[in-house]
Amino acid sequence: MNPEELHQLAEQHANTRTQIPHRIRVCAGTSCMGLHSDQLVSAVQRELKQHGHEKTCRVSGVGCMGLCSAGPLVAVDPDGILYQHVSETDISAIVASVGNAPLEQLRCPTDIPFFTHQKRVVLEHCGEIDPERIEDALAVGGYTALLKALTEMTPAEVITQVMRSGLRGRGGAGYPAGLKWTTVAKARNPRKFVICNGDEGDPGAFMDRGVMEGDPHRMIEAMAIAGYAIGANEGYFFVRGEYTTSVKRLRKAILQAERSGLLGANIFGTPFSFTLEVRIGAGAFVSGEETALIASIEGRRGTPNPRPPYPAEQGLWGCPTLINNVATLASIPPIINHGSEWYASMGTPNSKGTHVFALTGKVAHTGLIEVPLGTTLREVIFEIGGGIPNGHSFKAVQMGGPSGGCIPAEHLDTPIGYEDLQRIGAMIGSGGILVLDDTSSMVEVARFFMEFCMTESCGKCVPCRVGTVQMHNLLTRISTGAATTHDLALLESLCDLVQHTSLCGLGRSAPNPVLSTLRYFREEYEASLTSTPSNELIPLTARPPAPPTNGPNGKGA
Amino acid sequence: MKAARIAPPSDDKRWRVVDATMRRHGYHAHALIETLHATQESFGFLDEDALRYIAATLGVALSHAYGVATFYRRFTLKPRGARHTCVVCTGTACHLKGAPALLDALHRRIDNDPTNPPVSIMAARCLASCGLAPAVVFDGKVVGNLTPDLTIERIEKWLSDES
Amino acid sequence: MPSSVRVKTLRIDDLDVAGDEQQTIFDVAIEHDIPIPTLCHLDGLGAVGACRMCLVEVTNANQTRLQPACATPIEEGMQIVTNSPRLQEYRRMILELLFAEGNHVCAVCVSNGHCELQGLAQSVGMTHVRFPYHYPQRSVDASHRRFVVDHNRCVLCTRCVRVCDEIEGAHTWDLMGASSQTQVVTDLNQPWAEAETCTGCGKCIHVCPTGALFEKGHSVAEMHKRRQFLPYLRAMREREL
Prior knowledge:
A: 557 residues, Rossmann fold, Ubiquitin-like (UB roll), 4 domains, five-stranded mixed sheet, four-stranded mixed sheet, 42% helix, B: 163 residues, alpha+beta, Glutaredoxin, 2 domains
């Protein structure tokens, strides 16, 4: 494909869209699919056919629209009228209303803060386009950033834009993306790789899934731009095995892009060639760690290795490798299209741009949201999230999953930023925001995450493998009221040990949920201690509870 | 390229899928996980014959293949016994909204069943359907906003359909 | 191998030292008689940095980190502390965790008196274990004609896995499972006697730091391990290169 063809195609597809005045979008995100929204798509198709509306109205299954708690969601364009909790029996009325007055009883208001307070950059086309059609992606400007990068910019200029945008890694650590790109670009090796880390495994996080499912072509475009910038011609999507829809859509999108000449040899007639493959994770949380992820792609046990060497110097098959999170990469095309200054104008001085979050827990509106960094937690929970339902009150918000921490009410006005949250003992993490109300026990929350880390430990280094079992045991003792002050002291010294001596990030961050709940809710721990130290040993379970499993045998044989 | 390839353990047609996967990756050792995926999907589990065949074809050590097959949770070494599967999400949001109660109810209902449990109950890491919390996958279909009663209702339906 | 060796200078404890850039902190420390405790590391085998006993405080460019000495290449200007009170406390706790994890009963062990785990515990002054013992149910495989693996005493250092793969080239051993369920296995987790890839060379026996791998015919405290072959083999291989 050459540049003119891309413009022509984009125009042509945009025109086709305008020729059919109406469109019904059915959310085919995971949450709505769980409520059988796929059946709604076929119901709309049937209905349109039956009434001969096929020429004036089309139907698309689209990626996540965001407000999962109101699903299944259906939208009618061009007015963008949104319907909530739609069932199959509502479809004929919805189809009949197209071009007429909207159905008030089903309507989901779109002027609520949940929609108006968001700033969608990464998610701009999620929920708008049919992710399984490249035509839809082209019609909204897909691949124009790649065209711009390849034909108007040098690799160094692309990196400068990423550097100046202030974009930081969205996987959790917040490492400046531009710096990472520079390191790999400077590595002297004829063979390099780009890997998109889509092994999203934090419980309560589904941002990456939303993007990969909702706008797969953007991911391909971003990978190709990254490859061009750092001098790599091969890339891998490493996707969590449970995300079958993401895998399916990415594979389909790769095929479409290859057929259109947007992947492969001499893209846009330039000397740049790029190929992409999807690798499916086999079910190990630790595979999200960069060195473990590389081991997984290489067909080995996904256990982390000491750094240095860093993957940027010696990664996949010993070659310099750039590993970026899904949301990091998805921010690249708009940065190239609109410029780094535009991106850097959003956010705070140290945390620029927007961030996608998965808002869940005891909050009225749950779902996928995107806000500029610097937005306060209060805005996210009480405006966008609509506050705490069922007459309960806010107690804490857990951010960053098993690696993150709990934030109490007194810090609700903290702007969401990497350093801002770190200062109060939490972290952005990968983007899960879990709201807890007054019915939640903080010791239990800490125990829940420790159980996760214990079963997800790869077993390689001693502090994480054994320390998490011991900490889980102590937390269980505390939550059952069998622990003494001595146990609490032991727990704290274990936190210190595991945090500082573990091999990888999983182990080093495993104590975070305990440390942050101890910091703000110590009285809850102390209240459940027993004053009489008994010599009676609570038997430590010889084996930890069987790890949650997708197969009957668990991890072991 | 290795000269002679060993034959699959049986003339089961599903081995073609496994062979095709290994061929696509040039019979490289790094195709191990992809090949195990293909085998797991085709046969539902990885038995000793499969591991031996794959290890020999890809030129990896038996213990290495075994180590990889037991490290990752998606691989299982034994076939599923039950006729139905019921996977309870134990992600944070589901946990908070009552997943433990669902598991309890399920275990009470099924474990009391004397022989050969018809339903295999499993717990999964976050299904990323937090908007539906608590969610359960009944035979591959996600169902959300469940209560213990609603969950048992579905199980009873399976059981009554069978009898 | 590069023709010219680049030399880096650094400071370990109170000593200014130099080493070539291919060396690790541990290599350089040993050359200068600075002891650093190790468990999973063994001269002649690839480093994995798993046991965390050899962690040292490394200050470089005003940042202090704990790094495994066995797996960290030296860098110009590094300031290294090998034995601070904090490191001593961490090492003691790591050993306590190991003792709590397995079933280590020195009094009845073939390696009593010659055990690296026991030796480390003595050298760091570990007098008792503060953590509850796991008392795991683990098996003993005595099927092999000459050798025994007692999983109760295994600390998962993976020396046997590495020596079998890197030196003997048999790769009979590997790890199975994950988290606290990890275990060493022969071939497809078969009884050792049935593991067809095992050459019976016995290298794994002699690199094992504890009594987890031993030769039959030895009673309590009788199992002495001989590892002279490793540096010798490594030297021979380097000469060939």
